[in-house]
Amino acid sequence: MSRFKILLLFIMTFIRQLLGHNEGFGTRVESNTEFVPEEEQDYTPQLDYRNPRWCRFLNLANGEVTCHSPLGGNFHSTLGTRCEMTCDRGYKLLGRRSVQCMPSRRWSGTGHCRQVRCRVLQLIWHGTYHCTQGYTVDSRCDYVCEPGYRMEGYQSRTCLEGGSWSGAYPICADHEPPKIKCPLSRVKVADPGKLTARVSWDPPVATDSADKTVEVTLIGQGPDTDFEEGMNVIRYTAHDQARNRAACKFIVRVEVRRCPALQPPLHGHITCDADRDNYGAVCEYHCDRGYERTGTSTRVCQSDRSWTDAPAECVPADFKTDMNTASALLEQFYGKRRVLIVSTPDIADQDYKLQNLMVQKADCGLDLRQVTVLELLGSPPHEVGRIKGRHLDTEVIEGLRHAFRISRSSFSMLLLDKDGLDHERFIVPTASDEIFSYIDNNLLDEEERRRLDLHVNYCD
After folding, report:
1. Based on the domain organization, do 285 and 399 belong to the same domain?
2. pLDDT by residue (tens digit) across 415-427?
3. CATH number of residue 433's parent domain
4. Are the beta carbons of 59 and 39 closer than 8 angstroms?
5. Considering the domain boundaries, does residue 12 fall inside one?
6. CA dist., res. 386 & res. 231, Å (int)
7. Residue 5 in 3-state DSSP?
8. Nearest Cα to 277, choosing from 296, 263, 287?
9. Burial of 130 per CB tally in 10 Å (0-12, 13-18, 19+)
């Protein structure tokens, strides 16, 4: 019998030593946070601070463990190591946040991460909702109302990290407006000599599915009044007792007997009395400096909506070329037109032939920009100067070359502004678009630019 007791004692001691070198003895206390180890009474392992795996390696599902060891950052389970446990977003830590590797080769506590879930949202009257990730953290539930209802309050709610929903339940309110129908749009013609017309109609009646009486309001001019020429928008609004709103509108258009709007002549403008184009209006044509009017000076709007006579035109004024000096010739252009002087040593010069071809095609665009082309061709004794085929005196040619230092040895072009000043020189053939761009950006005033935009398609 004594042998049996000794054998039983040996087996118990062996088992205790075996368990002491692994997890030890312990009991789990019923709580929400931690596992409390049972203290060692009969066995204490031999302490070894250099053992890199004194305690088991900690793992935390859906979380992170950060450890600080007395031996340095590369050791995570040596004796004395302290570890901090944190959970991922959407998870809550149950147990101890901080544990330490004990001499018993156990950690001082345990913890785990549990997913946070919000409660199920209730349905709302006349509406529903749809969630992006169910009822987990950061899931967003969007509310939608049935047709005819309008949402009041939060349109969406989000599951927060603490397990609650953001915002509050919305309400789907009745949003059905009353019904109202306006009269048909109408057109009235003013009597001769008048610019207004009297217009009448029956006011509309509104109905509502819930309310017997609906408030109707007129916005704009009322019936049985005189309306001015043009488009007049008449609006009615209807409100039920819940202040739901409906609206309708119609158009009253008054026409005045008028003639077609007159277009100003190129390089000119028009002035009119009365209302410019109504019956009896008188309009007069005027031309810019450097241009002369051809045709009638005035036109009258008649009862059949047509103008008397044909439109007048503004043509370039006739410039004299039989002047004795260059200054006398240029004096005619001062303040009226710009001058583009083209010089070439020979009419067979290739640069001149190319430029001449481009100038001929750009004749309309140059005239639109009030530019007159003056040519100096060849050398004495066969030198020729001309403006639109009309020859210049030899003294005038020599005066132009001397005044503006124009060489006879090579092709060149010189652009003079309306003040007769040398503004730009071209020594190679230049495309018309480039010449136009330079004039538009550097020589035109605001009024000239406005008229150029008005007749931008004139030369097409």
Report:
1. no
2. 999 999 999 999 9
3. 3.40.30.10
4. no
5. no
6. 57
7. helix
8. 263
9. exposed
**In contact, 359 and 369? CB cutoff 8 Å:** no
- DSSP string across 247-285: EEEEEEEEE--BPPPPPPPTTEEEEESTTSSBTT-EEEE
- DSSP string spanning 191-211? PTT-SEEEE--PPP-EE-SS-
Q: Is residue 459 part of a domain?
A: no
> Are the beta carbons of 156 and 140 closer than 8 angstroms?
yes
Q: Do the beta carbons of residue 174 and residue 167 sit within 8 Å?
A: no
Neighbours of 109 (CB within 10 A): 18
CB neighbourhood size of 214 (10 A): 19
Could you report the per-residue pLDDT of 295-353, keeping only the tens digit for each? 999 999 888 899 999 999 988 888 888 999 999 999 999 988 999 999 999 999 999 99
Give me the long-range contacts of 138-141 (CB less than 8 A, separation at least 24): 138/89, 138/90, 141/165
Collect all residues with Cβ–Cβ distance below 8 Å to 31 and sequence separation of at least 6: none
The verdict on residue 3 lying in a domain is no
Please tell me the total number of residues recorded for the chain in this structure.
460
Beta carbons of 265 and 244 less than 8 angstroms apart:
no
